[in-house]
Amino acid sequence: MSDKILLLPDNIANQIAAGEVIQRPASAVKELLENAVDAGATAIQLIVVDAGKTLLQVIDNGSGMSETDARMCFERHATSKIRNIDDLFHIHTMGFRGEALASIAAVAQVALKTKRPEDETGTYIEVENSTVVTQEPAASPNGTSIAMKNLFFNVPARRNFLKSNAAEMRHIVEEFTRVTMAFPYILFTLTSNGQQVMHLEPGSLKQRIVQLLGNSYNAKMVSVAEQTDYMNIHGFTGKPETAKKTRGDQYFFVNNRFIKSAYLNHAVMSAYQELLPADSFPMYVLFIDLDPTQVDVNVHPTKQEIKFEDEKIVYAFVQAAVKHALAQFSITPTLDFDLDASIQQLPSVSQPFTSDQQQQASGSSLYQGFTQKHQAHFIEKPSGQELKSWRDFYEPLPREEALFDYEKTAQQQHLVIQNKRNRFEVDGDTELTQVLNTYIIMPADKSFLLINQQAAHERVLYTQMKEAAAGAPVTIQKSMFPVTLELSPSDAVLLGELLPDLLMLGYEIEPFGKNSFVVQGTPADLEDTDEKHLIDFTLEQYKHFSSDIRVSNREKLIRSLARQRAVKNGNRLTEREMRQLVTDLFQCEPFNTAPDGNPTYLEFKQDQIEKMFGR
Fold first, then answer.
1. pLDDT at residue 301 above 60?
2. In this predicted model, what pLDDT tens digit does every residue of 115-143 receive, in sequence order?
3. What is the pLDDT averaged over residues 274-297?
4. Which of 421-430, 503-512, 524-533, 537-546 has the highest mean pLDDT?
5. Strands 295-296 and 307-308
6. pLDDT band (50, 70, 90) for residue 48
7. What is d(CA 309, CA 368) in angstroms, rounded to the nearest whole number?
8. What gap in Å lies between CA 506 and CA 473, rounded to an integer?
């Protein structure tokens, strides 16, 4: 019997390795930009065509390579960063594995032109499918230019996996942002399809953050700076009013390397615990500098996951640094320990504590709970019969009352829904009452409904926009004074991707130069609103829904717009507005849930309420 185990050819082995390192054009952007930084470049250009599918090129003015190094760099595990095993534990460079260029050459057509300052001529090399097809001397400026053409030309399945150009461009901008933020002293430019998207002049970290994330953060950031013998922390964190509904503007860097760490993110969130609601996330750009021997970056090929030797102490330092920064700039609430003079005049302070009062206090259950053993968690047995029906209240409803019984046929389910719709029909005699400026109480047959006005309006708007997207576009009201929007580069790319669907839904928005847009029209039924706030909120909600890969882009956009336009809890409604909202709700299909799956109303039946009162 012949042997079965064979050594794979280099081109096949490289393609297998490339699957981990180069997942999409943005992966190559990260690797090439990091190589340019490691080469000591002071100016780096990124050029993309068709979101990197046709061309992705990085040009730098770094140290360049010799003729031998230029050819060797495409070999697997060829690196200038490591000489022995000890070097793996003292890594100061961005790259070190020696896999990036070999992986890129395995799945794309690569052209490299490089020259060192001390050489008279440079070197030009073409590589295709891991094979060098051309190598010759060439005139070249100092530094390196590497062009990656026709990504995944030899892996059709992987190429078909790529998303739309707009979606891939968003990923490229994301990786570009992470690298450029870590090196604010380097000039970076990004050009897409012949148009310059970003031009980032060298400057301070704060200037780079504002260039990348938008001018809205300019006066709303707090400086973080703590130095210890073990580690240093510096950067910026946003004031509470800048918090958003998504985690987009959150960046951690360890020794200038962008990382993802839910553990350290929790440390920052805990510092904001008393300042933000649970569903809001602060902006932060934090850099942690510590001895490379205390951290392992060789965990994953993307180098975005790392391990700390003592992660608990890093957590504590991060939390303390952010808390200290917020307190130093009077962001966190403070306690006033000065006793108010009026408190001294209260009877409990000024009057004597008589013996009768002492005896009465010592006989109370509260006093015994604090002074006697085994009483701290003791609960007295209720003497009355007020809770005698608690078991009945929690008994499950009869099966025929369930809204969706999956054992029933679709026709039976439809009848159940129709019966509920008939029971909840709103007529001229139906009395509607708003409570807490949030809920609408509506009487029904032997029950009443408690309707959440925001959830109900979201369902109504969602249904209307779904119908508009499937049929005729929404009527557009032209703006008398068009509003100009200035967005961050990443949000500008996202909005550009959504423009066709927004137009279908009644929002006429046109590009207006670099990262700017003009709102020419809005839906005719939309009342006067702040277009800037509307777009910002919609983009944030869109990014919030983007974690669900099962939902289409149009679906995410409709959900986002429905949430943005819905009447918010806490708003007072007139009798007419309540009646219209409830009428529209029960015309929807389904009407019992909002687009996010939460209920639009709760029904309280008479027999259930009577059981609660022990009747």
1. no
2. 999 999 999 999 988 888 999 999 999 99
3. 83
4. 503-512
5. antiparallel
6. very high
7. 49
8. 7
With tokens 């090399």, the residue in question is 125
Per DSSP, the residues of 24-87 read SHHHHHHHHHHHHHHTT-SEEEEEEEGGGTSEEEEEE-S----HHHHHHTTSTT--SS-SSGGG
The Cα 94–Cα 96 span in angstroms is 7
In three-state form (DSSP H/G/I as H, E/B as E, the rest C), the secondary structure along 467-522 is HHHHCCCCCEEEEEEEEEEECCHHHHHHHHHHHHHHHHCCCEEEECCCCEEEEEEE
Query: Which two structure tokens, joined as six digits, stand for 440?
Result: 């609408």
Residue 14 structure tokens:
């490289």
Residue 495 is predicted with a pLDDT of 85
* Secondary structure element (H or E) that encloses residue 222, with its range: strand 221-227
Task: Identify whether the C-beta of residue 42 lies closer than 8 Å to the C-beta of residue 59.
Answer: no
* pLDDT value of residue 251: 93
- Amino acid identity of residue 269, one-letter, is M
The amino acid that residue 421 corresponds to is R
Residue 527: phi, psi to the nearest 5? -70, 165
Say whether pLDDT at 441 is over 50: yes
Q: 493 with 177: CB under 8 angstroms?
A: no
CB 14 within 8 Å of CB 76:
yes
Tell me the CA distances in angstroms from 130 to 423, 457, 461, one per residue in order: 71, 57, 54
Apex 228 CA angle, 222 and 231, nearest 5:
85
Query: In 10 A of CB 516, how many CB atoms?
Result: 13
**Exposed, middle or buried, 284 (CB in 10 Å: 0-12/13-18/19+)?**
buried
Q: Which residues pair with 148 in a beta bridge?
A: 56, 110
Angle of the 489-504 helix axis to the 531-545 helix axis, nearest 10: 100
Quote the tokens at residue 169: 């461009």
Residue type, 572: R
Spatial neighbors of 404 by CB under 8 A, at least 6 apart, are: 413, 416
Mean pLDDT in the chain?
78
Cβ-based burial of 557 (10 A; exposed 0-12, middle 13-18, buried ≥19): buried
Entry pTM:
0.66
Report which residue type is found at 518.
V
Which tokens go with 54? 């046709």
Amino acid at 241: E
The pLDDT score that the predictor gives to residue 454 is 92
Show the tokens assigned to 190: 């990004």
